[in-house]
């Protein structure tokens, strides 16, 4: 064709050109994101970014991991430049493990290729939408969770190979004409990929807890299902690519090189007519997005402030659930390897419950060998930690046998402390009323919208009136909690709860909890105890007993 040049201008930039004889013209990456027009096509991708950021917040990252999740990469980073960063992370992990840094392994090279392909999805979008940088943060966190751990490397390698084969690469953007349908297909590919990365990060970062997650959520095939969804999106993109109306590559446009001037003039005329419309759409979208964001922020602030005020009524100066869990987690349990839940056989019973008796509340009991702690509390902590990062799951918990190190026991609050004040030696133990208050406070913290939607049920006046009545505080909790889907309630060592003359643990608290778990299909109730379940609720529960002592006097080692 000689050295004819095809140049079409869009906003003053060249879309494609042919500068050398025989060279294949290429489409500019700028075509894939046109300001003021394309935001609607990439909405699924931006929503995936928001969900990824929300997932990272649920992981409660440590400082070094938080730094990785907020990588501020240069906008012009190119695929092929990520390997050096991965090697840097490997050296950091080797240094922490006091190991000599090894050369880049085959896994690192494979992961770098995978990361290059993922980065190709967002390279054209980052200059316009910086929020896509979360992709790199998740990639680096995933690599950090897996590298130098051979079993995890092997488990991840097979997954990234399948995903890599389904991702478009840099050349894809240069040779495929960016129709609106193709842009939407790319956005869906990106969204599916981010869902896989999110799940993979939670899975491999919480490697030890995955057995519990799989049993509690029946989650064994989740990654496989997400990869299958990616396969569907990939096939849809391939069909668009092969269709005649979008199979317009740079080679096809070569035939109009002799009419370059005419095409350019037509395009410029069209561009001048649509420029104002595009700018107006972008401005309108920006204003609407800003207004929506501000409105949501104000609503969330007011709901959170109101929820915090109600929590203060419930707990006074008591530590909140997060502080309590952190303190319990820091406790060093005296457990031999055979007493730990990973090794004592309880996971098999969990799997049996999950597959056959999923709708029944669970009662876990047992004890450990001499001079050992009761193993069920260690497992309760891990159940909570395993469930908290999961999307669309709410976890409420209480530790009845936990003695806090710095809990307020004075009368500084107008509301009775959730912990018992009598007898003096047991003033840190939870009472039935205190336990329900703690659950209700957590519920309002995680779902502050409930107090707004059901202000007739939950308000300061009603909470103050119900502060000393188990039936009243339970009625408030029950009316709110049944509105939450996929809810887990974990009560550890319920046998450590202390009743009084008016409210009994066996007579009031346990039956109320069990009845709630039985009636609501959205609530999974997990109770742990040193003892067997009481006989009057035994037939409504799925009991799991595991005793690791060498000599056992009875099935549960004792009763109430």
UniProtKB/TrEMBL annotation:
Keywords: Coiled coil. It holds the Pfam family DUF7708. Residues 213-240 form a coiled coil. Residues 407-426 are annotated as: Disordered. Residues 107-248 form the DUF7708 domain. This is DUF7708 domain-containing protein. It comes from Podospora fimiseda. The lineage of its organism: Eukaryota, Fungi, Dikarya, Ascomycota, Pezizomycotina.
